[in-house]
Write a structure and sequence with these properties.
This protein is mainly β. A twelve-stranded antiparallel beta sheet has the order 1-2-3-4-5-6-7-8-9-10-11-12, with no helix packed on it. About 5% of the residues are buried.
């Protein structure tokens, strides 16, 4: 199996939302993969409001019926836990399901549907094209309460992966993101 650690954070000094996760995934034969994660969530607020925190599970399963096609499902917060102290803010529970189709090693086409307790169904679609064996370019679109466009570029070399992305929100404008992954 494989272990993963992730750290995410956004916000500023008066409000910051952070997430740390520890995950484990394993192939269960050539056609099935499964994973589980434990996520620690923290919302840091100004002194008068107090901080909120939670520890929640996440589960995933992938099925590969034929070589270029992968189906997946992801369940987030299945026990419907809340932040502590309770009563201030809920953590949405829900699921995502999707399909990915590889067209050779250069093109990946993906579709996904996401549903949580508090929001309508949201659909996503996107594709990744390798301009060079080390440089993927990505484009995506989402539907739901608002449509968003996203794009990005990456660099992969041995165990190192660097990604830059941007998304266009119809009200908030552009948001940038950066990612770094190291495999041992």
């Amino acid at each position: 199996g494989n272990y993963g650690v992730s750290l995410l954070s956004f916000g500023y000094s008066s409000f910051r939302q952070s997430q740390a996760s520890l995950c484990f995934g394993k192939s269960l034969g050539k056609k099935l993969r499964a994973g589980i994660g434990i996520l620690g969530l923290l919302i840091s607020q100004p002194a008068g409001y107090g901080n909120l925190y939670a520890v929640i599970p996440s589960l995933g399963l992938q099925i590969i019926p034929v070589e270029p096609i992968t189906f997946g499902i992801h369940v987030y917060n299945p026990a419907n836990q809340e932040y502590i102290p309770a009563g201030y803010l809920e953590i949405p529970s829900g699921f995502q399901t999707g399909i990915g189709i590889n067209f050779g090693k250069e093109v990946l086409l993906c579709f996904e549907a996401e549903k949580n307790r508090r929001a309508p169904l949201t659909c996503y679609g996107g594709f990744e094209i390798f301009l060079h064996e080390k440089i993927p370019v990505r484009f995506g679109v989402s539907s739901g309460t608002r449509s968003e466009l996203s794009f990005g570029i990456g660099f992969r070399n041995h165990g190192l992966q660097v990604d830059l992305a941007a998304t266009r929100h119809p009200v908030l404008g552009f948001s940038m993101a950066a990612g770094l992954a190291i495999s041992f």
